[in-house]
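Appendix B, Record 12. Input sequence as logged:
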Amino acid sequence: MKLLFGTGNSLKYSLMKERLNDLKEIELVIPSMLNISIDVVEDGNTPEENAIKKAKQYYEVSKLPTIAEDSGLYIDTFPKEEQPGLFVKRINGQEGLSDEVILKYYVDKLKKYGGESLACYHTGVCLIDESGQIHSDTIIEKKFLLTSKVSSKKSILGGVLDCISYDLDIDKYFCERTEEEKRNHYKQLDANYKQLVKKVF
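Logged structural output:
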């Protein structure tokens, strides 16, 4: 059975394919493989609302079972009005900023609120089955530490905030983790995805 993953991001496709790789009955495809190109306006208030919007639009075009996701960052010490939420890379309404500018913004903001804070990503996921029924959920990922102390490695490959995000389970910055350590961190998220897909199909 083909399952359309509503994304144009090849890295996200690889991660999702790996996440669902033991569900042999599912063939994961992305829109470009089906010559589908649509522009979804992600103007929901939560990650789950955006995931639903994306899944519905891709399902309407493809008529295939569809899965979509979106995520937001929530930082414990930041007041509600200063939460990045869905707009991790949008600073004061500005988009297209360099990684260096974004990183400095978060470092300065963390210093303002004590130098460090627990944080987590909320991932909204929506799955639409063959009949068009919508199944959605918000997965709250494992908490980690955001710190104003930048890793000496200073690598921001793979994620703008990886060099100030600290994995408390293994005492390492995200940018310093091995591939195996990254997979271990996301085991619960992976399990939640599989549970949803298995429940629907």
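The CA atoms of residues 35 and 101 lie 36 Å apart.
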